[in-house]
Amino acid sequence: MSLVPQYNYPAGTEITLYNEKMSICAMQENGYEMLNLETGEVGVTSFSKFAELQKSPAMKIGADAGLPSTELEMRLGNLKVAEQLAPPQQERGQFHHAFCCATAMLRTKLRREHGMPDLRLTGALLNDADNRKFICKVATEIFGKKVRPKGFRGGQNNEWVLYDGRTILKYLQIFDRLEVDDDVIAALATRDHLKGNNTKRIDWTLLQLMTQAWEEIGLDLKGPSVSNVHHHLEMLVFEENGRRIRNGLAKLVVPSHKTLKRHQQYLLNPTEFLVATKGERHALNKRGRGSTDLRGLFPGELVEADECKLSLISSAKERGYWENLSNEDQQTLEEIDKEIRTRLTLLVMIDVATRMPLAWVVSDKPKAEATLALLRMATRDKTKEKIKYGCEGDPAPAMGLGLVKTDNGVGLRNKTVVEGLLGTTAIYAAVRAYASADKPYVERLIGTTESLLIKLIHGYTGRKAGELPGYNSNANGLLDIDELYGILTRFFIDEYPSLRHMGVGMGGRRPAEVLKELNKTRGLFKMMDADQRRIHLGWKFEVTPNDEGVRVLSGIWFNSPEFQVAVDDHAVSKVSVFVDPENVNDATAIIPGVAREFRLQLQVTAFADLTIPEVLELTEAHRREDPAITEIYEDRIASTRRQRFDLLKQIGVERRLTRSHSTFEECRIKARHVFAGARIVRAPEGGQTVRPGDLTASMQGPGVFLIGDGNAAIDHQEANHSESPAVQLDGGVTFKGNDGITPAGPKSAEPRDLSQVPLGRPKKGGKFS
């Protein structure tokens, strides 16, 4: 059985338990008797429970409650330790402690020599030269600095001189009254912190006017100066002095600017004043408390992304092609250049665990597509950028993303980006905009990039409007986007990872070395599935498959055996193809109704390891040619076709070949012969019919019957309806050729049942037998 500790606390010890003030009354056999100082309730807490509570932050044990103050608190005004005093006071207290110890040793020595245990020191004994030498010798050894029995003549000096006997006795009495737990140095220190006249020397009415001036003018978001507040105070004092003169009182004197500023510092602390004049958001960024925790433990676990407009003017002119453009194209590009100069934005992503830049994108339109490009760059290999721009260091390798933090920017927080991250099993967290404490790591990266790199590039505009009045940014903004991206790439690969980082968890190490260390000890965050990465972060195309596979962007073919078999089995008309624009070696296809993805391989080997912009640029370069060369080849094609046509026509005339084509007039004549004998038979108007199977059924009402074979119409001849004989049935119903049914006489009162009419073959002449 383990030992249960039983701590012996004196009665009256103050204890704070769950924000309730309590005091220990007595120690019993079962535990401590506790008194609630707020409610007066008394209870018993067992020793085991008290020991467990002592380990938790819920319990705080303070000083004895209800006891009189100690000598230290009475003398120094509730100060208990020497560290609460100023350094000169602490040093003076050490000096006092040294000669008090030496004086106590002198007292013991004199009592032994004279055989008087009750011997008391007096001022005369302490002023004796031999005794003073003894005290100085011992005090020097304790204090560590030379202590002299008397000072030199000739003004002030920094030497430690022993006090007179009466002063030594005063400090010795304090030394003898001290308890074991008291801080001796603090108890023997001087009370310089209590010196001075702390009473108000400004009239109470003037203090009220100063407070009124700060409330009405000084605490405004427009940020007024102390002079503005002082002018308003002068007006208030002038009005108050008018009233005081009428009442026979003395005038108030307007205080100085410094006094007015000190009054503001007395009223509000710096944080409160910053909130009042700059706003809560600005105060949070400037004086908000950040986190000192290690938020990321291994690379890729936590990343932060942000975007900012570059304080830089760049050019959109494409190097190498400007001189080959026409005047109209140059004018169009100049307009595009002006637009891009005002909308250039940098997007960056940083890994929190290593402080390594993972991705950087320069865009003139910071929308969802730019953010997806940032995510694709962070999750892919960046060796191509290293080789292209001649970097010496190693960029961050391809890794997965665990938690991505961004603010509420339109380009960062939108449906497309969130769906893409969640589809790749990453976690997305949106933090507050303009709150640097929510994403401090990427904010520091952007600030460092601004101060170390951007301000040195040609075309820098400054952090705020009018900061560089003597520099013409528009005239010096000659870098195009490709040159700017190369400079940024070399900075994020070679320079920033090589700098010493003094952030939390870095300890002066370099991000590149931290990445190597964590890669060996903890490993990188798991990679994303390649197909899922293309589906959620890549470009989507709806295409029709054929025997060659699928084609995107009118020239990039992809195919695989499994995909071809699936297309033939399901006979689909459209499939979805997802391509990584940074690497066209593979693509992912999804067939409707098929529960799997198909990985397709690039079929055009000339495009291997290229990006889609590089493929389009290569294709455009192949199709681009000099207009003069185009005219030569077009003339050659037209002349060759004319010669071939004339040759074939000549051969046909010489060999008397029949024509295989017709003229427009011949086509019209043949059409008239084709349609000349055609006869159109009109359907009878107003004809009445019955349902199938009801021809001879017992029913009332008229019906249509085929009677006899009649005169059949001859093809290509007009029918003569006037010669058709009329057939009359019982009841007055007459059938007359193809004219339908017409009544032969007056209608009967009741309709007859036609099923009772005998039907037979009519005789010649159209009569029934």
Task: Give an overview in words.
GO terms for molecular function: nucleic acid binding. This is Integrase-like protein. InterPro entries: Integrase_cat-core, RNaseH-like_sf, RNaseH_sf. It is a single chain. The chain is of the alpha+beta class and about 775 residues long. It has 6 domains: about 15-65, no CATH class; about 90-195, no CATH class; about 205-285, no CATH class; about 305-520, Ribonuclease H-like superfamily/Ribonuclease H (Nucleotidyltransferase, domain 5, 2-Layer Sandwich), CATH 3.30.420.10; about 540-625, no CATH class; about 700-710 and about 715-769, no CATH class. The protein contains 25 helices and 21 strands. Strand 2 and strand 3 (about 30-35) form a beta hairpin. Helix 3 (about 85-115) crosses helix 6 (about 165-175) and helix 14 runs parallel beside helix 16 (about 415-425). Residues about 65-70, about 320-325, about 710-720 and about 720-760 have low confidence and may be disordered.
Strand order of the largest sheet: 13-16-17-18-15-14
Distance between the termini: 131 Å
Quickly count the helices. Answer: 25
CATH arch. level architecture of the largest domain: 2-Layer Sandwich
**pLDDT average, as an integer?**
81
Domain module tally: 6
As a percent range, the share of helical residues equals: 25-40%
Q: How would you characterize the largest beta sheet?
A: 6 strands, antiparallel
Low-confidence regions: 65-69, 318-323, 712-719, 721-760
Strand content: 5-15%
The CATH topology of the largest domain, please?
Nucleotidyltransferase, domain 5
